[in-house]
Amino acid sequence: MSESSALPIPASLDETLKLMRARLSHVIPDFEIQAKAEIAHKINLLKREMNAVILGHNYMEPALYHSVPDYTGDSLQLSVVASKTKADIIVFCGVWFMGESAKILNPGKMVLVPSEKAGCSLAEGVTAEDVIALRKRFPGAVVVSYVNTYATVKAESDYCCTSGNADKVLKHLMDAGHKRIVFLPDEYLARNTASEVGVRYFAASDTDENYALLPADEPVVIGWKARCEVHELFTVEDVENIRKQYPDAVILAHPECSPEVMAKVDVAGSTKLMVDYVRDVDAPRYALFTECSMGDNLAAEFPHREMVRACSLRCKHMNTVTLEDTLEALQNLQYQVKLSDDIITRARTPIDRMISIR
Ligand code: SF4
After folding, report:
1. 341 C-alpha vs ligand 1 centroid, how far in Å?
2. pLDDT of 195 strictly over 80
3. Residue 4 domain-assigned?
C-alpha cells in the first residue's frame, strides 16, 4: 500500500475478502480475515457514503492497515495527505496528536480519531508551560518540537519535525545561523540527531553553571527528558541476541531508540525509511527495532522478505485503535478533534515549516 495515491474501494464483501486474503493470508488465519472483512466492508461503504478519507499510520494492526485506509505512511506523509484532502471527514487511524496535526492543517474538515485513549508518552512528556519556561531559561533559542507533541506545545514552538526530517530541520537552522536549538520532547531523538549532524548536545536537566561554560559561537542542541515508552525498551543485549541467532539479519532501528542501541544497529531511520529499505534492498532477513505491528505489516506487504518477528514490544496507545473502533468512529462521528482557532493559527506555522523541509 502506498502513501502517494488512494486505493480503489472494493465494492462488495466478496471483493473485500479477496483483497484481504491476498494481503494477509500468510500472517493471519482465515477465520479472522473473514470476521475482519465484514467490518472492513461496512467501513468502506460508510466511507464512500460520508465522503470520508481514512489515513492509516504504519503502526496500525495488519487487519486494519491492509483493509480500509486510503493512504498509509508515517506522520509526515499522512500530514501532507491531510493538508490536501477534499474529503469532508478525515478519520486518522493513529494517535491523538496525529489527529490534531490533521485538524491544524485542514481546519475546515471534521477530524476523527477512533480511540479517545490513543495517547503517546512523548506527547504527554512536555507541556506548553514547559516550552514557555525553556524560552525564559534559554533566551534567543529557536524551539523545535517533534511532531509527537500536542497542539498546545506546537503553538509555542518555532518549528516541528518528524523522525524523517529532524536532521534536515537541524541543518536548516544551523545554516540560518542559530546557535541554540531547543529540541523537544524526545531525549533520544535529540541526542541521535545532534550526533548525526555533528552538534554538541546539552541536557536541559543540566545546571545553569554548565550551560554558561558552552562556547557562545558553537551550535548546541538543548534536549528534554521524555522518551518513547516502546523504543526506549530496546537494548544493546537485544542487538547482540539477534546477531547471535540471525547473523545474516539487517537490523533497522528507529531513532527514538537509545544512542547506545543506534550505535550497534545497521540502519537508522524513520518508519518510512524502513518501508523503503525492506522494499528496495535485498537482504537475507530484516529485524525492526520499532513498534511490532510495523514488522507484521511489512511481512504482509512483502511476503518474499524474511522478517525476524520480535513482537513483545507494542505501543499500547496505537493498539487501542482497531477496525471495530474505526467503524464506530464513522457511525457515531467520534472522537472529534476540536482545537481553538488561536491554537490552530499558532500551531500551523511550525507544522508548515516541517512540511516544507523534506
Ligand atoms: S510508539 Fe512511542 S512515540 Fe509512537 S505513539 Fe507509541 S509511545 Fe508515542
Report:
1. 27
2. yes
3. no
Nearest CA to ligand 1 atom 8: 120
Q: What is the pLDDT of residues 82-103, one digit of tens each?
A: 999 999 999 999 999 999 999 9
Please give the share of the chain, as a percent, with pLDDT higher than 90.
89
pTM (two decimals): 0.94
Domain annotation covers residue 150: yes
Q: Is the CB of 148 under 6 A from ligand 1?
A: yes
Confidence grade of residue 7 (pLDDT, cut at 50, 70, 90): low
Q: Is residue 355 part of a domain?
A: no
Based on the fold, state whether residues 42 and 94 are members of the same structural domain. Answer: yes
- Nearest atom, ligand 1, residue 316 CA: 6
How high is the pLDDT of residue 171?
97
pLDDT interval class at 11 (50, 70, 90): confident
Determine the residue of 148, 150, 288 to mutate for testing ligand 1's pocket, defined as the one with the most ligand atoms within 8 A of the Cβ atom: 148
SS3 per-residue string spanning the chain: CCCCCCCCCCCCHHHHHHHHHHHHCCCCCHHHHHHHHHHHHHHHHHHHHCCEEEEEECCCCHHHHCCCCCEEECHHHHHHHHHHCCCCEEEEECCHHHHHHHHHHCCCCEEECCCCCCCCCCHHHCCHHHHHHHHHHCCCCEEEEECCCCHHHHCCCCEEECCCCHHHHHHHHHHCCCCEEEEECEHHHHHHHHHHHCCEEEECCCCHHHHHCCCCCCCEEEECCECCCCHHHCCHHHHHHHHHHCCCEEEEECCCCCHHHHHHCCEECCHHHHHHHHHHCCCCEEEEECCHHHHHHHHHHCCCCCECCCCCCCCCCHHHCCHHHHHHHHHHCCCECCCCHHHHHHHHHHHHHHHHCC
Last residue of a domain, one of 189, 209, 227: 227
Residue with the smallest CA separation from ligand 1 atom 3 is 228
* Position 158 pLDDT exceeds 90: yes
Q: How high is the pLDDT of residue 8?
A: 66
CATH number, position 34: 3.40.50.10800
Atom 7, ligand 1: residue with shortest CA distance: 120
Domain extent, residue 214, equals: 126-227
Residues 258 and 326 in one domain: no
Cβ(58) – ligand 1 distance below 6 Å:
no
Mean pLDDT for 272-286 is 95
